[in-house]
Amino acid sequence: MSSGLLTHPNIAWLECPLYFTHPDLASPVDPLFAARKEGGKYFTILYISRMIDRRKFIKVSAASASLAAISRSALAKTVDSAMSKSPGFPIVISTWNFGIEANKEAWKTLSASGRALDAVEAGVKIPEADMKNHTVGRAGYPDRDGHVTLDACIMDEHGNCGSVAAMEYIAHPISVARLVMEKTPHIMLVGEGATQFAVEQGFKKEELLTPESEKAWKEWLKTAKYAPVMNIEHMPGSKYNHDTIGMLAIDAQGNISGACTTSGMAFKMHGRVGDSPIIGAGLYVDNEVGGATSTGVGEEVIRNVGSFLVVELMRRGYHPEHACREAVERIIKKKPEYSKTIQVGFLAINKKGEHGAYALQRGFEYAVCNNETQDLLIKGKSAYETAIG
Which SS3 state, helix, strand or coil, does residue 73 take? Predict the structure, then answer.
């Protein structure tokens, strides 16, 4: 199926219980079909031109009642091969291999019938506290001026959300983001204001620049050109790889929450903020549909409102993997050459617990934890076959 045609301005949607073709649909856009399973029944989603007049529409609708070109068994086989199986609830998924340990922590809450919101907060605090992880939390690499600034956001099943950006001196930005959500009328606090709020809430103010991170920063300064030029930061694939952790969970009650936290691009311009703390870009949850999160070069995710886009595509019936792929393809469409030099990945889960991912480059992977397994790592598919670096 051509994902480009799915966004064609002359295409409308109609769901019908039979698969059929009709000559009146041949122009100006050929019909497209996609299988969808709901309540044990299989449907086809028929995309037809808005330019069909009412008479032709009625004619085509009548024709559908008498045509069944594909047997139900064949259609079922197509659906099952295209869609991932739901493992049941609860379930938690997260980006990258360090998501395995994060998931295990989240699972402690989920397996005890706890709330998904509590699970994702507890889960992402694991990489935030990991002194060997230089892309998330207290051991993150600094910006060009030597400041370690952290970004995070969180969103619950009710649409409540909180965020902090460019916050210094606080080791767990995800917990501060949650308090922004719960104790203020705002969604986002940034910079000194975020730090001030955290201290007022009892968080310890501490130096986050570790000796190892400081050494790496000083080494970078030897060759770095200090100028406000885009792309001067080290791109993914280098030793300064930028990996956000995004986590999505569905609890035993079927409610979805998500969290996203990062220290941002290594040696970024002071004050730079990527997609991670931005609701709709780095993270988005709709409890009726599902949730999505992202990783990689945040500017391109923001430009396409990536996570919101993925969720809205799932609302239209896309499987999570297909929704992630469509979001990646939009990045490529806008910047075809630049997209070959960077990494962006999306991860999503729908209300059924089906999950999937897709990235620009090879190498993106995500961790899954459920009743069947607590340490599953899945390699995401990608648009380009050659990994960066």
Answer: helix
The active-site residue out of 44, 109, 244, 262 is 244
d(CA 33, CA 299): 34
Are residues 125 and 172 in contact, defined by beta-carbon separation less than 8 angstroms? yes
Kindly report the three-state secondary structure assignment for every residue of 315-346: HCCCCHHHHHHHHHHHHHHHCCCHHHCCCEEE
Tokens of 371: 């009743």
Cis peptide preceding 90, ω within 30 of 0: yes
Secondary structure of residue 323 in the 3-state scheme: helix
What residue ranges of the chain have pLDDT lower than 50? 1-84, 227-241, 389
- Quick one: the chain helix, strand, coil %, rounded to 5? 30, 25, 45
What is the rounded distance in angstroms from the CA atom of residue 268 to the CA atom of residue 142?
8
Token pair of 264, please? 């941002």
Question: 304-324: per-residue pLDDT in tens?
Answer: 999 999 999 999 999 999 999
Q: Could you tell me the domains of the chain? A: 5-82 (no CATH), 91-382 (3.60.20.30)
Query: Containing H/E element for 188?
Result: strand 188-190
* Measured CA angle at 153 (ends 158, 113), to 5 deg: 50
Chain-centroid distance of CA 120 in Å reads: 14
Q: Tell me, yes or no, if 210 is annotated catalytic.
A: no
Alpha helices in the chain (DSSP H): 54-64, 72-82, 99-110, 116-129, 173-183, 191-200, 211-221, 298-303, 306-315, 320-334
Residue entry with tokens 């009892």: 202
Q: What is the pLDDT of residues 8-60, one digit of tens each?
A: 444 444 443 333 333 333 333 333 334 444 444 334 444 433 344 444 444 44
Residues 6+ apart with CB under 8 A from 270: 143, 144, 145, 147, 149
Q: Assign 378 to helix, strand or coil.
A: strand
